[in-house]
Amino acid sequence: MKRPLTTETTDNQVAAQPGTALTESPAVPPLNPLPINTAPGEKNISSLVGSLIKKPILSFGIGIGIGLATVLMQLFSGHSNSSNLVSRVDYERIQPGMTQTQVEATLPLGIEVSRSEESTQLVWENPDGSKVEAEFQNGILTSKAQSGLK
Hints:
two-stranded antiparallel ribbon, 29% helix
């Protein structure tokens, strides 16, 4: 765009030679106010923003991993079904001499009905009334019984 000859200039104009019009200079990008090279131990804004983005993503990834591990543990825990029901197959898997930890890993969550210094009795009862009873002496399965299991 041609403008009349003037000797005054603005920030975006270059002084014209006599007989020519003033032209606007190309836009110059502003200087970056933050230094690219920071002192050791200091963080620039891009690294701060990056760390703010990475933390939620990392937390999300950890949450997904824990959830997946929980599902896999339930699938491969040895229960014959995914519900909290105890079955005849579950009952037959437990044998005298197993530890209480092994029995509890084989059967769904049971209820402790009595405990003394040396013995513990657990019961696993289904909604239909069928159940498994187990007695442990010093943490070892010594007897088991079932009623009504299918």
